[in-house]
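Intended use. Records like the one below are meant for learning the mapping from a protein sequence to its folded structure. Do not use them to infer anything beyond what is encoded.
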Amino acid sequence: GLFVTDYFTRTPRKLSPFRSFASIELFHFHIPEDTVIAVWNLITFKEQGGTFGDQCPDRSITVYFRSGAPSVINPLHTHFPRDTAVPGSFALTLTWTLPNRTTGVFNVTSPLPGDWFLAAHLPKDEGKISVKGLYEECQYLFQPQLIVQRLVNIAVLYPGHVTEQSMAPHNRSCLYKVFVPSYTSRVLVEVLRCRGAEGCPLWLRVRAKAPPLHNSTALDCREHTPCQLAQDLPFWQHWYYVLVEKHPGVPGTISFQVTVQLTDCSRPSLARPPFLPSSASMNMPHSFGSAGGLALGDSPPPTSPNDTKHPVPISVTSHTGEQCWPVRPTLRNELDTFSVHFYIFFGPNVSVPPDRPAVFVINLLPVLDSGGVLNVELRLNVSSLCGENVTVFGCLNHEVPLTSGDNTSVTCETESLAGFLLSVNATASLSRLRIPYPQTGSWYLSLRSLCATEHGFEPCTNVTAEVYLRAYLSPCINDCGIYGQCKLLRTNNYLYAACECKAGWNGWGCTDNAEAFSYGFQLLSTLLLCLSNVMFVPPVAIAVRSHYLLEAAVYIFTMFFSTFYHACDQPGIVVFCIMEYDVLQFCDFLGSLMSVWVTVIAMARLQPIVKQASVLYLLGAMLLSMALQMDRHGLWNLLGPSLFALGIMAVAWTARTIRRRHCYPPTWKRWAFYLCPGALIAAAAVLLYAFVETEENYFYIHSIWHLLIAGSVGFLLPPRAKPSRSLGPLPRRKGCGYQLCVNEQEELGLVDPAVASINSICTS
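Structure written out for the chain above:
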């Protein structure tokens, strides 16, 4: 055949260490129909500071592949919530072959058409809290590329028609496809009139949705006469591919005929004309009465086969022959993103008669609904059993309804199909099923009631069970509980939801408490982070005693908002918020930086030089507010104003040193007992904050940070000299001019006014 090659690529993205599904990078691809091979080229490279990261460590990268919906991954091997079905996916781990670049290849032969999703992440790290901008971070960028090769002009088989084919010696196989419509109960493929070789050396393979593989359903025509391959309960509204393959080593040309027969359950035989069923056959609750005013057991009049009121049936093969049951649709009610309820007409109570199943269809929209969680809940009305030992079984299958034809055993699996089983009885009257990231399309729920006997399950007699059925789509499982947050994420134009757990809880629904923080630990950590701010009380007292009222106000502001910010920032249930989280965080960061600013400006002693020193305080508040608004966690946006304040202090101290021709402050006691200890304490606090703090030790390391910063302020805050009471008012020269008074005690930076004599010099 003729092959066409298509190329698809995605923009490189930065990978993150795995913490939850919210930390992965998701890529969305679409594979066209008739694709025979898909090749993903997985490119990964390192970057550091805008250049290639040759010095970055090699970290393995895990990539997951899944068709139809995102992969449900569990690299940390945590526990899933109860009643949760985990669909499978492919996984691939990339290793580094070059210092800064590696490439991996993932081939899929005859992939399923439609949506494919790739998820990639780095391994979990130690949880170090790094300061943004402190050093050049190693970035691992991942870029997937897709190359598909598809066949064009594949021969189409029409049901009931015979297709002639001759296979030349240089050809090994012939590929066909046939479309299977809805309500098809069986597909039968047959090879006829095989000529040109002895014994018809052909293989017949059939597969749904994509060309057959080596492990697809196959039949050796040399060993089976006639060469017929049947597929019961085929997928509806899909292409089925038929591959006729020649045995290796067979010379010459082989001619044969291929035909396909489809069994349509929606067309009953003439002996059983279609009719409008009663309320029992429509599986309506008894409280709604009968349809069309007919009593239960009455025979309604027959209608024409083309009657629009005729229910849509499905096929169930049993030992009594082929039977058809109606499929009841559901009403879709969209409340929000991934918040959809599926209502049943004349529901939510459903009657399950003893002699037939009740079948419902749930339609999930392509792409839009695959990023949530499909929830199905069954609740049995025990009073409707009339004392019988009845069990209601439910089979949830994708794209085709499945009901067991064997009355002695109930299963939701066949050779080609696999579904999810639910069951309720008088002992366990409630059953739930959750499917994260379900595949889109039609999901069929088949309910059947059986009675338990000594020989197994058998059909019940005269007992109609009533079941409460609830089906809905939610963003996350149980909204991630009290120890998680359900986040709505986006990759390009695709939306999906995932839980982000806290307080040591893990798992897909934040239900794994293997590493969870106890309530006592949460309370202790909250008290440590909040009460450590009480260390600001001594600096406030020192500032008030030295008449630094503005500085004292800033320290009180910092102490207040830091306390309540950390009370609101806790990951567990010991949380107390007096304002919005963002407001508390901004005020905490602003107060911390303003404390540094006003302390350094006070140390510079600019009042005798700059008459309006409050201008610098106002300027600092505006600059810090702007920096926090730009990037609250950026290093230089926060460090810049602090360095500017230190520069002002250094210029002021240098000017005094040059003018007085000795070091300022001039006393060794000030350096030994105040400045050096305060600087060392502040440096230790910065080192702890920048290099030691991790997610595990955050509670006590950050509390120590509070204690050290507040303690350093108490040491670094300069004293303010009190004027001597023995001095009278200074004489003032009459006329125009001004007086500049210099207090030598203040120049020396002394604490006690009695240490040195006061010599005030006034000049005009």
